[in-house]
């Protein structure tokens, strides 16, 4: 099985990318935290439709985890990831250490407002600062022409778009549809934390959101529909609901019925936090 | 008199820069807020020693002014600035509007810690966020190989270096010596606010700092020497002293006698705030 070129320094990454650029090749990037699943593979497939070369970064970014979160137990499986990248025909894996990304004395933070307000930020207040900072760095290290992010992390996708627009980062951001198992469960590295009984509960998240979105599209009151979805999640066996909330799909401003909407949710199953989102068609 | 090419959109700036880059030319940038004086001209001279083309941005950046500060009365004199740029043989003037730099919905901030802590930040708490954000944008818009900043704004120079290192902005930062009038007064656009009597007071700032630095280098206690310098400033006619403080010259950490130091000061003359700094040799 062929594996991609693997580099762990910014200098080696830049040398490789500059070579491609000299040859006139278009370069796509797929930033990941590893533990690659079919969702990631679909991002690489889209990247290779948009560009001749695909760089995949694998970096479990400590600055986007709060001290209470799952940084230590987040799944790490580099050998398996590199096999999957080989099968997916990714060209380069960038696997920096924490010290390569954040050398001693590192002291800079990129903060995005707008779409970062509320939702995840209400429960993970420093999360998007960590995401925006590491994505800005990755883009400046790899200088891709485009980058592919999954719609599963919908708010993150909007935040990255805002980041690029605001800082004039010349990277085209491509959103990719969420990949789901046959029961509708969104692929996520954190699904690995779930036992069989929990998986069966988790599989109901998407159906509950789709039902609420359909009701809202058909005219149901927004507050009623989201409250009902929260109740249905608890009834299905979820431990706690962080939020179920409709937003405008482009700006993440509060949803108005005449705009394309997105219904977003975060919910807990024991110690595992799951997120998902679905479209709310305008009427 | 020849004038530089003037562009006010990011798209036109990029088109010009990409053309130069295609021709294999090295590009230097000098970010300014206009009201160009001999200090700026010396930065352009250094830029043209380091690169074949020099882009000068002229943008009075509102995000680095606090509401109480002099944004409205900051001197603006574009026609005169363009004449000076022509004489200095700058190739391109980038003169964006506030709307071009911060379009509706703009929501991103770059914050630098480390050398930004204390000194100016104690008195202008949002200043370096504004500087770091606009410099990151200017570098991503113009993609220069190097950029020249004056040592007169010494803490700013250190902050910009930290910004580039931390965000992997591939721009070499060159510090340029402060240009002074024959009496030692550092060139500054804000000197235009001073009347003749105030100018005579302002001209004593550098001598007072040089005296304190020489005493510290000769073994005087750091606290005694800076307190004495503050007293001397008030005795000379300055209205108020924000700080007189010694720092390590590279990191801006607290100064230790065995390291290269920098003595930095900010002081007021009526409504005008002046800054300056001098070297403190290690012993």
What does this structure look like?
- The structure is a homodimer of 283-residue chains.
- Chain A contains ten helices and ten strands.
- Chain A folds into two domains: 5-176, Rossmann fold, CATH 3.40.50.620; 189-280, Pantoate-beta-alanine ligase, C-terminal domain (Pantoate--beta-alanine Ligase, Chain: A,domain 2, 2-Layer Sandwich).
- The first copy, chain A, has 283 residues and is an alpha/beta fold.
- The longest helix of chain A is centred in the middle third of the chain and has 16 residues, at 127-142.
- Chain A has helices spanning 10-22, 38-50, 78-87, 98-101, 120-123, 127-142, 154-167, 196-202, 205-217, 222-236; strands at residues 5-7, 27-32, 53-58, 92-94, 108-112, 146-150, 172-176, 240-248, 261-269, 272-280.
- The termini of chain A are far apart.
- The mean pLDDT of chain A is 96.
- The first copy, chain A, has a six-stranded parallel beta sheet, with helices on both faces. In chain A, strands 8-9-10 form a three-stranded antiparallel beta sheet.
- In chain A, strand 2, helix 2 (38-50) and strand 3 (53-58) form a beta-alpha-beta unit.
- The A-B interface holds A 10, 14, 103, 105-116, 132, 136-137, 140-141, 162-163, 165-170, 251 and B 10, 103, 105-116, 132, 136-137, 140-141, 162-163, 165-170, 251.
- Strand 5 of chain A pairs antiparallel with strand 5 of chain B, so a sheet runs across the interface.
């Amino acid at each position: 099985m062929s594996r991609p070129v693997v580099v762990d320094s910014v200098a080696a990454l830049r040398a490789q990318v500059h070579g491609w650029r000299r040859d006139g090749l278009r370069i796509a990037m797929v930033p990941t935290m590893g533990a690659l699943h079919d969702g990631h593979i679909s991002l690489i497939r889209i990247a290779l439709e948009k560009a001749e070369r695909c760089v995949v970064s694998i970096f479990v970014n400590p600055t986007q985890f709060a001290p209470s979160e799952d940084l230590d137990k987040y799944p790490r499986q580099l050998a398996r990831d590199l096999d999957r990248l080989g099968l997916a025909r990714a060209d380069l894996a960038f696997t920096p250490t924490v010290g390569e990304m954040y050398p001693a004395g590192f002291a800079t933070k990129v903060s995005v407002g707008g779409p970062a307000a509320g939702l995840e930020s209400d429960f993970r207040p420093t999360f998007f600062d960590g995401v925006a900072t590491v994505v800005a760095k990755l883009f400046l290290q790899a200088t891709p022409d485009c980058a592919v992010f999954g719609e599963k992390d919908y708010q993150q996708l909007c935040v990255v778009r805002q980041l690029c627009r605001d800082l004039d980062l010349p990277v085209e951001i491509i959103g990719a549809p969420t990949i789901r198992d046959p029961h509708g469960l969104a692929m996520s590295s954190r699904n690995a934390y779930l036992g069989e009984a929990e998986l069966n509960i988790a599989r109901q998240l998407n159906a509950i959101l789709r039902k609420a979105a359909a009701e809202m599209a058909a005219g149901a009151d927004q507050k009623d529909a989201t409250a009902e979805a929260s109740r249905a999640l608890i009834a299905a066996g979820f431990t706690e609901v962080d939020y179920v909330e409709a937003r405008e799909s482009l700006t993440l401003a509060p949803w108005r019925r005449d705009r394309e909407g997105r219904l977003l949710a975060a919910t807990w199953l024991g110690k595992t936090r799951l997120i998902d989102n679905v479209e709310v068609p305008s009427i």
